[in-house]
């Protein structure tokens, strides 16, 4: 039995029946040769920053510790960077920012590992990993063979990919290759970034300026998991049809929205949760963050069951007031 407390940013106490840290592809291949391993349930763990343990894990946890960043190829405009799945995502962002390679600076300070990033198509401030994603390599844990997935094969969607759906639990992502820009093409349209750069009187921002702006914004709103257990946004922002949105707008003229596919609107779940009075509320050792209503927090001894109970209460209240069903973004185990 291995205690999973150090391996999840929610800081939940749970145990895994078996736990293996993977530091090389050959070690994993060797391990998988023993077919009996593949009969157990598998859980592949990166930084543990998007997971909620509600019970002990009666199976095998494989922790991705693969390291290394290499330039695969480059031309005048782009560089293709291959990064091992166990690298820390933010370290990769800083590496790119320091080299002046653009494309992932808006994704600064997202917790977690590189291998986990494509699983939920991480996104922030108008950018998603799919925008720079070239391909990934993953070991099929049933066959032990390496398979390559290109952008299309990953079936990326809003906080979605094939690895959260039909391929869930079947692949261990060993590396991710991104195609980064050498020529600066910044994306500063997201309101918060523009406001921050204006406040700093920066009119011609660099990649590094955008990264610094994102880091400052995130630090002001999102709790640091080292200080306060959390897994970032607990829910996805719901997408509703325009007719539903129009009805809500009559009743709640201050409702916030973002454009989605034609005929639909994306509503910030944080606004709905705050409007229903949940923001900053604490129940025992679990609660809703005081600066970002989309983030559930564990003040110390909170359990997965208590967080799930709170999540269900929030879901029910949002359904009742707005007729919208929130869905969790976090993987619930
Ligand atoms: N808002 C509130 N109350 C709050 C917070 C926000 O009403 O407590 C409203 C504001 O109107 C604000 C709007 O919600 O304009 C959007 O807020 P914010 O920019 O903070 O973004 P979000 O929609 O709450 C999403 C992502 C975050 C990402 C930010 C910035 C999801 C589920 N979450 O949050 O991602 O950092 O946008 O791009 O899409 C994560 O996935 O873990 C995550 C943190």
Structure description:
The protein has 333 residues and is an alpha+beta fold. The chain has three domains: 2-64, Uridine Diphospho-n-acetylenolpyruvylglucosamine Reductase, domain 2 (2-Layer Sandwich), CATH 3.30.43.10; 69-181, Uridine Diphospho-n-acetylenolpyruvylglucosamine Reductase, domain 3, CATH 3.30.465.10; 229-332, UDP-N-acetylenolpyruvoylglucosamine reductase, C-terminal domain (Uridine Diphospho-n-acetylenolpyruvylglucosamine Reductase, domain 1), CATH 3.90.78. Helix content is 24%, strand content 27%. It is built from seven helices and 20 strands. The protein has helices at 25-33, 89-98, 191-199, 207-221, 242-251, 269-275, 304-322, and strands at residues 2-3, 15-22, 42-45, 51-52, 57-64, 69-74, 78-84, 123-124, 127-128, 133-140, 146-150, 171-181, 229-233, 239-241, 258-259, 264-266, 282-283, 286-288, 295-298, 331-332. The strands form six sheets. Strands 6-7-12-10-11 form a five-stranded antiparallel sheet, with no helix packed on it. Strands 1-2-5-3 form a four-stranded mixed sheet. A hairpin with a 5-residue loop joins strand 10 and strand 11. Helix 3 crosses helix 4 (207-221). The chain is globular, with a radius of gyration of 20 Å. The two termini are 17 Å apart. 41% of the residues are buried. Uridine-diphosphate-2(N-acetylglucosaminyl) butyric acid is lined by residues 124-125, 192, 221-222, 232-233, 236-237, 256, 268, 270-271, 274, 279, 292-294, 329.
